[in-house]
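Q: What does the predicted 3D structure of AAA family ATPase look like?
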Amino acid sequence: MRHPQRPSPTPDGTEPTPVRGNLPAELSTFVGREAELAELESLLGESRLVTVVGVAGVGKTRITARVAALMEKRYCDGVWIAELSDVHDPELLVHTLVDALGLTDHTSRSPRAVLAEHCAERRLMLVIDGFEHLAGPCAELVRELLRRAPGLRVLAAGRRPLRVEGEVTFPLLPMTDDDALELFVRRACAVRPDFRLPGGDRETALELCRRLDGIPLALELAAGRLRALTTEQVLHRLDDRFRLLTGGSPCALPRHQTLRTAIGWSHELCAPEQRLLWARLSVFAGQFDLEAVEYICSGPDLPADSVLDVLDELLAQSVVLREDSAVGSRYRLLDTVREYGAEWLRATGDAGRLRRRHRDWYLGLATWCELDWFSPRQAEAAARIDSELPNLRRAMECSMESPDEVHLAQYLAGTLWFYWAGCGRLAEGRHWLDHVLEEESPYDHSRLKALWVLGYVAVLQGDPVGAVSALQECREEGERSGDATAVAYAVHRTGCLSIVADDPARAEDLLREALGRYREIGELNSNVLMAQVELGMAVAFRGDLEAATAICDEVREICEDHGERWTLAYALYVLGYAALRSGPSGRARRMLAESLSISHAFDDLLGTVLSLELLALVTATEGDAAEAAVLQGAADRIWPSVGLPLFGSVHYGRPRAECEERARAQLGDARYDVERHSGRLLDVRAAVARALRAGADDGSAPAGGDGTAPGAAPGAGAAGTGSPDGAGTAGDTRRPAASRTSGRGGPELG
């Protein structure tokens, strides 16, 4: 950093050109951040104090220097940078700023008065970097300068806001994937001029950037390792990232030379209770909410009623990030920050207890969401589980580490049946169910539940062998142990298997038996209603369309009474099937369009593709063979993500065969193949929107502008995507949302 002094007169006695700042020259190319730079320029045009805050190594110093350079010509008295990270005595703060501005004064005036008088008469920008350890004195000084100097703009960069009146806080987030990759490649080329990213190496480098959270410091340190390692080797060694990512530029600030010291700098600035919460927050994976933090992380040394204030301080210091999502305000640690906290948690010897508390909370959360699935809160339950999936995975992993706790993992995997089957997660559900059942454990309720859920998922995936094995084991052991609930579910899902195996007569018998068993034990939920829907399907396949309609109309009424939407979609599917077979297609289209809207809102790919298949036939019967072929192509693209197309069933496959026959007859083979191929190019969202629009064109299926029909599950579209509604504006100072005490969180189980 240059510290220019006031220029001396030249030999001929004339005044030299005045120095107009001390911006350092850039030693490497600035990469990306176009949107952030533009927003910072705009904010500095409107506000006199803008503070860039962010986690260690995210690039605060570099972006403030860059935006200062871009705006330099706007300030006739220059842009001046003061680096405060090495200033530890508050008494030296003013001296450092005086020195940064190149001021000299031999009078008896105080440096503070000299600084204020100099700024008062000028139009200049002061950039203050690394102030967090002097936040209080620095805020007081900045407040005084801004009051006395109307032409002064202050751009600050630190881990926390100054908290001065009029301050606008700009949270600097990690780089996007594209910017991070460009930065990594540029820095890699500086180390190895022959560095290239052919083919698969690009994906490896992109994964490396993601694992490093898009933190510029981490990316630059990783690029430096390419002197000795390949990109793939660096990626594989990231589990010990603090030892790997060292050796930064000797010209860099000390706190930026290694990743550990960069984050350690933040850690040193935290109060003891903040360090404790930081360590305990490392048990979370992905996002988390305030209620979970208050339950899991509190204790005698950190009372629950103090957690909010401590979390607020960690947010202010950019240790914790706040994100607004479909399920409200959420928080998270970057992976690098989490690993640092995890090291401290292990050092306290408290990691095992915290992991069990974490597991217990998410067991309770899954239990409550399963109950909420059969209620008007169904969409919210789906969205909540979607946002908590990383933590639920960690909870299952924790339970699998001890033979005495395997039953808890089995319980959790089984309890999430509604998410696996109802929200497009069949493959992941199958993974966890297979995994938790690999371990030997007693045939208690938890294991039996996991077995019938495994059988259910296998049926939906078109795996009859896996389904029979799991369901038979569940029924036999349930009968032996007297678990009537497990037996009822095993019988039910065996009946479901019989439908897709083209034995509707046996399916009807088994489903009626299951429904009788459900009545005996007083069971009523989405599964029970689904058994009725499947009974209606079996009856319809046997040709009794009137009975099938009556059965599913009853389900429809119960669903409406309880606010249940997911099972309703399947009841509407059967009603659409019966209507299509009974006469004109108008009623069938209305039923199937609503079914499609609901299934798509829940990201239920099975319900979505089944409805698309029937809507293709409806479209063909209405005379639009080309559009029918397109919809069939769209269904072709979805099936591989679900399982065996149409379960390999003759009954389920008959409408598809009929649709293809009609369309080929009208279009000819060549054009039919072209139209069907074009449908395979549509993603799910586009296919659903097109199918609903086709109905809306003739007035038979009122569809919303977003591809959902009126009455579709509210908020459920966000449930499947997990996308935030928005991250707020740059000027917001992010603080925790107020806690809502709902009592939802499991008791400690161990």
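A (community wiki): The structure tokens above were generated from the sequence. DSSP finds 34 helices and seven strands in the chain. The radius of gyration is 32 Å.
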